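Note to self: the last two entries modelled the partners one at a time, which told us nothing about the interface. This time every component goes in together.
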Amino acid sequence: MIISERISKPTGRRMSLYLRVLHSLLELGQVSISSKELGSQTGVKDAQVRKDLACFGSLGRPGVGYRILDLHEQLRRLLGMDQTWNAVLVGAGNIGRALMAYPRFRNEGFDFVAAFDQDKKTIGKQIAGLKIQPMSELKKTVKEKRAKLGLIAVPPDAAVHVAHSLMDAGIRGILNFAPIRLDLPAEIAVVNVDFTDALEQLAFEIRLSTIDGKTTK
Amino acid sequence: MIISERISKPTGRRMSLYLRVLHSLLELGQVSISSKELGSQTGVKDAQVRKDLACFGSLGRPGVGYRILDLHEQLRRLLGMDQTWNAVLVGAGNIGRALMAYPRFRNEGFDFVAAFDQDKKTIGKQIAGLKIQPMSELKKTVKEKRAKLGLIAVPPDAAVHVAHSLMDAGIRGILNFAPIRLDLPAEIAVVNVDFTDALEQLAFEIRLSTIDGKTTK
DNA sequence: GATTGTGAAGAGCTTCACAGCT
DNA sequence: AGCTGTGAAGCTCTTCACAATC
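The predicted structure of the combined assembly is written out below.
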């Protein structure tokens, strides 16, 4: 029952979608689900769903579908949601504070164990139950609290330096909200969330749909 | 000099990266850049850069590279950054407020022209210079202010309804921060920004790198 | 010599279609 | 009949490699 086998990034992203749908179905008491149904709820073709789930072995039953409970369990484990991920926040500005207050994180296996900022006026204040610490305490605290994840919510020019500090402190993965490319060694996982980028993408898509074909009337 | 030609999504995403790099190089006074250099600053292979930029025709000069000024101009136009995009916010909670305060938006051609919320206690308050309005005024205000973009920062169960209201009001594109799939007609562009999803992706990637090959020592 | 533009090869992801199981 | 698991086909994106250009 070794899960290994290379799982592609697109598949990984869909796995998250599946997990979310299954979670609500589980609460509704549904017992099993077909690849077709799971697909329609996530915007994925049925064959694709089956291919994605193939890494769990023969989990589905022909004529019936997949047992939601089993699938849910497998996905949670695959995505690492069967454990709690301790995370630290760097940057207690607007975005940082909003993230700390975001209720979904706590519900999904992420736990903020510390928050840091460079600004002397901010240090010492409370945010979401945590006292904001100076950057000098980063390494020590990360080790102590066994944090594996770091969230970067500082201005872009400070982000690269912060990323290195996090890496140095032993963090394994970084969720980066600064609009800049962090060029880190492959063993540090980086996921970027870039608002400006997202808005640009949006403007671009609208632009496209206006240019080609159906010039929106 | 018709730009059309289908531009793929991956290319579009990279175009944003190029634009950002060029923007800072322009300020530094650099005149031209090779595909190789632009590539190394964005994490893209040189051939890929050239393929991406091919849609602008023969903009580069062999032996020299691309004139930054020209390239910058072309990219701005392509990505729709040569105009101002009026945007409205729906949902003035933590995330909504953080977004309004995010300084980068204003600098990059996006302008928030209104903010809405459902909560009677929130309506009427000021946020980033805007008075929060009730949902009932959405359609009228969107038309009046000629808003083309909508940002959804409401809880997931309300998001689908809000999306339809925005569509109904004549919005062309939606930046969705709610962790739920908005199933809208193709003529409405939707870009999702899902924090939980991003964190899950991160946990997953760490998981992968631990399982296969180099079990991080 | 440096660098572009691009056809062709390569890699990766998605969809099809169908045998086989319940 | 309904549905899975999967080989094969199809499609898209990336990388290579090289003639053409400055």
